[in-house]
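Re: beginner question about structure tokens

> Can someone show what the tokenized structure looks like for a real chain? I only ever see the sequence side.

Sure, here's an example I had lying around. Input first:
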Amino acid sequence: MDVLTALLLVHLIPVSTAKNGVSSKSRKRIMPDPVTEPPVTDPVYEALLYCNIPSVAERSMEGHAPHHFKLVSVHVFIRHGDRYPLYVIPKTKRPEIDCTLVANRKPYHPKLEAFVSHMSKGSGASFESPLNSLPLYPNHPLCEMGELTQTGVVQHLQNGQLLRDIYLKKHKLLPNDWSADQIYLETTGKSRTLQSGLALLYGFLPDFDWKKIYFRHQPSALFCSGSCYCPVRNQYLEKEQRRQYLLRLKNSQLEKTYGEMAKIVDVPTKQLRAANPIDSMLCHFCHNVSFPCTRNGCVDMEHFKVIKTHQIEDERERREKKLYLGYSLLGAHPILNQTIGRMQRATEGRKEELFALYSAHDVTLSPVLSALGLSEARFPRFAARLIFELWQDREKPSEHSVRILYNGVDVTFHTSFCQDHHKHSPKPMCPLENLVRFVKRDMFVALGGSSTNYYDACHREGF
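And the corresponding structure tokens:
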């Protein structure tokens, strides 16, 4: 892969920024709120939201339903928690972040010590290869590249505990003597996704029996399993990357900023840009570590704001141009198709896979959000969670409905397939058949052309 392609992919992938000090109420919001948000997009505010520093437990809308509704199954998609950068700013010292887990260090979680103890007993866990060779928790005094931090572990312990309180204690989704086939776990082959999944699982099912836990390995960040070959999806992605590239070329302030930063670290501008400096700056910002300096000066907050502002503009244009939507509809189809299959089996009274967890990346969640029509949703922050709940109406047992929540906010009626439903229904959720019809048919209609199935849409001629 050449540097330009890598850079463009990077811009599609780990995109955004953050720092400490946001109240839990403002962190929780995912759709723009004209009343409480800054009137002009504020790059530092957006960065703070992205960081998702654990604070007081957030209030959430998961599990809310009229009393005559019964929770049948839950499907959770998470982005891994806070991590060390994947890139280094050339000729600067790496930020010094400690990736050992220390119970009395901030951010703190009451289950952190027990989590470490439980993970240290899991060396015999039998996960699908190559997951069985990965460490079960972060444990380096100086974080390795891409390693989950203590913040990342705490974010998911918190997520897991919140879901436990709602789905297990309140709704009794799983029996106390739950069996291995009642939960489905899948992760990519990165230590940060496996460890994030385990942290959430430990918050959800403390001191779980290792013999009942089996993580499947997913080689693709799109979780497309055996349906990954899709030439038209890749064509959409290439066009989207071209759009990103052209937008960057138009931004003279961005080029000037990269030039200034390149002089500070004494490398060509092209080399600095290829090192994706925002990824490393984000780590400094989230962990309140000052930006790097050299004898030529310091990288500073103004540089950070310019790059972050460009990312926000890029996301705005991305929504308008719709190329990413085409990529997303094809990219998200396999995982959504799998999810509705699991839901349909649950409606038939099957008791397997009532709780599914996919531990993934921003490039997994972002296409799913886009495909669902949640164009206003913020780019997936660290430890973002997207949840599908399946409910049965006890008064009409043959009727099943879904709710969709993003970071605890109910976004069901923001989805393209359920926008209009609430206008003529008092129920606070969407009929399952709307979601099924969307995945089986309407996703392809939205792409234009005459395709009515995934294979044809992926191999359409003349795109």
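Each token stands for a local structural state, so reading them left to right follows the chain. Residues 46-231+323-459 form a domain with the Rossmann fold fold (CATH 3.40.50.1240).
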